[in-house]
Amino acid sequence: MLCTIAPATLHLTLSLDLLWTNPFASGLGLYNTIFKILFISAQVYIVYLMLNDYKPTHDPNADTFKVEYLLAGAAVMGIVFPPKYELAEMLWAFSLWLESVAILPQLFMLQRTGSAETITTHYIFALGAYRALYIPNWIWRYFMEKGHFEPIPVIAGIIQTVLYTDFFYIYWSKVMQGQRFNLPV
After folding, report:
1. Which residues sit opposite 181 in a β-bridge?
2. Handedness of CA 81, 84, 89, 92 (dihedral sign)
3. Phi/psi of residue 77, each to 5°?
């Protein structure tokens, strides 16, 4: 549950610029506005489904991860290390730091239960692969945009990719070989 609420929170903070940005100001403005609204709507709908339609599948006794620590840590990092000391930049930094650790509640649940449904493991793998694919993008931008480097996305992305490495190994050695995802004992 928390693994779904955290991305919804971070995408809302990433998209707060919709409140003060003119969607017609640039060529991509309208495109970005439409897709941000669609993406936020989809995230909010997923949270709604999890809180209502899929609530019987949620075990609050097993879901004891203290997400407040992740939110507080991301908020501190966003305030202390923004690219510029402007509200939009601090929210952007907050969202990146939160995204880097948003998978921790799901990984915590996997550790507590010791196994997961195949669809859940594919979902977690897709989330991790999405973030790992940022690495070639950073390399491309560095060489094609004359040394372009943004430390916050790179550091946060490396943190998130490292958090996934153990999961990737188990996913590859078990699920991709047709076996059920079970953590080694």
Report:
1. 116
2. negative
3. -65, -40
3-state secondary structure 116-132: ECHHHHHHHHHHHHHHH
H or E element at residue 49? helix 29-51
Count of residues making up the chain: 185
Q: Which two tokens stand for residue 160?
A: 């998130």
Phi, psi (rounded to 5 degrees) for 179: -100, 165
At 66-107, the pLDDT tens digits run 888 998 999 999 999 999 999 889 988 998 899 899 888 888
CB contact set of 139 (below 8 Å; sequence gap of 6+): none
Q: Do 105 and 3 form a contact (C-beta atoms < 8 A)?
A: yes
Is residue 103 within 8 Å of residue 160, measured between CB atoms?
A: yes
CA–CA dist 170, 165 (Å, integer): 9
pLDDT tens digits along 10-67: 677 777 777 777 777 776 678 888 888 888 888 889 888 888 887 766 677 777 788 8
Residue by residue, DSSP assigns 115-184 as EE-HHHHHHHHHHHHHHHTHHHHHHHHHHHTTS---HHHHHHHHHHHHHHHHHHHHHHHTGGGT--EE--
Unique residue bearing structure tokens 């402007």 = 86
